[in-house]
Amino acid sequence: MTRRCKKCRVPLEGILYRLIATRLFGVRPSAKDPELCNKCEDKK
User: Which of 7, 23, 35, 44 would give a disulfide with 40, using CB separation of 3.0 to 4.6 Å?
Assistant: First the structure.
């Protein structure tokens, strides 16, 4: 089971994360809360 963001459910590890999330959308784990992505952290 891959780790996902608690709010938007985007993958934060694995093949989909490396190929799609980081390169196309700039998504990465949050620096403050590793359970969230950087996009959801900005929405707080």
Answer: 7
With 0-12 CB in 10 A as exposed, 13-18 as middle and 19+ as buried, what is 35? middle
Interval 25-42: pLDDT, tens? 899 999 999 999 999 998
Long-range contacts of 31-36 (CB under 8 A, 24+ apart): 35/5, 35/6, 36/5, 36/6, 36/7
pTM: 0.76
- Would you state the structure tokens that stand for residue 38, as one six-digit string? 């950087």
